[in-house]
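Thread: Newbie trying to understand structure tokens

Hi all, I'm a second-year student working on a class project, and my supervisor (Dr. K.) asked me to get a predicted structure for one chain before our next meeting. I've only ever worked with sequences, so writing a 3D structure as a token string is new to me. If someone could post the tokens and maybe explain what I'm looking at, I'd be very grateful. Here's the chain:
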Amino acid sequence: MAQVSGRAIRKAVRHLERGHVIIHPTEAVYGVGGFLDDGPLGELEEIKGRTGRGFVVLIPSADAVAGMLGETGRALAEAFWPGPLTLVLDDPGGRFHPRARAGDGSIAVRVPGHPLALQLLGACGRPITSSSANPPGELPARTAAGAARAARARGRTLFALDAGPLPGGAVSTLVRPGPEGPILLREGTVGMPQLEEAMGGMEVNRGGARLGPDGARTESGGEAALHITFVCTGNTCRSPMAEAIARGIIADEEIGGVTVGSAGTAAWPGAPASGGALRAAARAGLDLGSHESVLLTEEVVKSSGLVLCMSSAHLWRALELGGEGHTYLLSEMAGSAGDVEDPFGGTDDVYASTCRQLRELVGAVLTGAGREEDAG
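---
Reply by user tm_fold:
Sure, no problem. This is what the structure looks like when written as tokens:
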């Protein structure tokens, strides 16, 4: 970790006290955040383009949520804090600002493992929000300069508490403690075996999800997650790009209980992504280098909770394979209309345009769900 002077920390605290949002480090990447007041929360909502979603909150110690953890939460906090475990807690007493809480009234909190983040929390004496510095679906910022560039691209010049390059890697694990045991909403740095060990063998349930045509999603304590399959023709262009975009958004936006894949109605199994898709994805910060195409089959359709198709032709084929009741056009699910045209054989500009269209559509489907992303 880069050496950071006390002066830099004091300057960061002054910015926070003036109601500003700042860039700060977490264990993995840089985040943006501020105090839990109307001003900074409103600014953060504008930066992220979100309202009513809630934000992950960094706290200095478990004492900040005393009385909210319960027996399960206390066991998890003792085992993993400070560190990459985010706990989603009920807040019936309204201890945290309403705009920091999710739509169900819960608050997501974490004691960060990065020493500079802990120093900052100790110096300001208050919790701060932690939202990833990158736009949804793009790579998280591992440097303060990268986070500052992302902020400038959205019209903001923010003070950055620079801890040097950060390692990146897996996001924090998201868990909701409960009287009958913890519910794993998203597996990250802390895995299921570690959680079960910390709980002394108590069963850890995986949170499920439901997503309807309006894009609304709710968490549940069920075992099964929602699996979304994106469908095009050869599974070398549109659907692989949609899958990669969705993976990025799911990770960034703290969306638990959702997995994604892709397939093609006329795919040659094992074929790589097309050159145009590889280049368009790379420019968007996505990696399709390991993609291998999959043929859309009855088994794939029936094992998917949601099948999202690029065109009407794909839709009809998926319906023929048993997709009635859970198969839609991607544009329909996103609240739009029309097909996503095939870029195959087109120029790099055509592929780039398709990638941008897919980012908009997939984002519309996914970002009405889950909790605002955690920077760690």
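A couple of things are worth pointing out once you decode it. The first strand starts at residue 22 and ends at 25. The longest helix spans residues 348-366. Feel free to ask follow-ups in this thread.
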